[in-house]
Amino acid sequence: RREPLALVNLKKKNEETGEEELASRLGHCKAKATRHIFLIRHSQYNLDGRTDKDRTLTPLGREQAELTGHRLASLGLKFDQIIHSSMTRATETTEIISKHLPGVKKISTDLLREGAPIEPDPPVSHWKPEAVQYYEDGARIEAAFRNFIHRADAKQEEDSYEIFVCHANVIRYIVCRALQFPPEGWLRMSLNNGSITHLVIRPNGRVALRTLGDTGFMPPDKITRT
């Protein structure tokens, strides 16, 4: 529903000539800027934590977040905002990354929390959530995709650079949806902790994947996927 034609009332007539000024109206609805979306997977965390509050970053995880923050800062881009999952491991990763990007505002959201987006195809034997989890998490994660991953608003004049700190399942699902691939294939991808995935959304709505799960900026002994 973001194509210019979907935003124009075709029945509305010009009061003076009685003719539709379609071209003019379309011009006001067309996006002009490109959005750069950087999806960051949280760093390594304590898997033994019983609750979300207990699942804090490990010492290695904190190192990974520092490396990711340094990498993002080294790109020399003017980041507009950091939107992050409200889960502890994503929030802590964001706090460390943000030290390298002073002045960039941080926004927390429950939409980006980890979950089971859709039943994977082919199925896997080691991970079988209850069916209800797919309905609950899937609707939320799809809402996150629709809310955050779209072409720029027509009022946006300059290209934007946004960071989203969240979780592997969420990122993999978003990548499939953004590229219009079957979303059931999300589990075929693997993402390292602290990795960077870069999506580009052009004004015409076309999406390109520039990097998927990049951790080439980390020493080999700092890379994990847990």
From TrEMBL:
One GO molecular-function entry: protein serine/threonine phosphatase activity
Catalyzed chemical reaction(s): O-phospho-L-seryl-[protein] + H2O = L-seryl-[protein] + phosphate; O-phospho-L-threonyl-[protein] + H2O = L-threonyl-[protein] + phosphate
Protein name (Swiss-Prot/TrEMBL): Serine/threonine-protein phosphatase PGAM5, mitochondrial
CDD domains, alphabetized: HP_PGM_like
GO cellular component, one term: mitochondrial outer membrane
Organism for this UniProt entry: Bucorvus abyssinicus (Northern ground-hornbill)
UniProt keyword list: Hydrolase, Membrane, Mitochondrion, Mitochondrion outer membrane, Necrosis
Localization annotation: Mitochondrion outer membrane
Primary residence: mitochondrion
EC assignment: 3.1.3.16
InterPro entries named in the record: His_Pase_superF_clade-1 (IPR013078), His_PPase_superfam (IPR029033), Mito_Ser/Thr_phosphatase (IPR051021)
GO biological process: positive regulation of mitochondrial fission; programmed cell death
Gene3D superfamilies: Phosphoglycerate mutase-like
UniProt-listed PANTHER family: PHOSPHOGLYCERATE MUTASE-RELATED, SERINE_THREONINE-PROTEIN PHOSPHATASE PGAM5, MITOCHONDRIAL
Family according to the record: Belongs to the phosphoglycerate mutase family. BPG-dependent PGAM subfamily.
The organism's place on the tree of life at top rank: Eukaryota
SMART domains assigned: PGAM
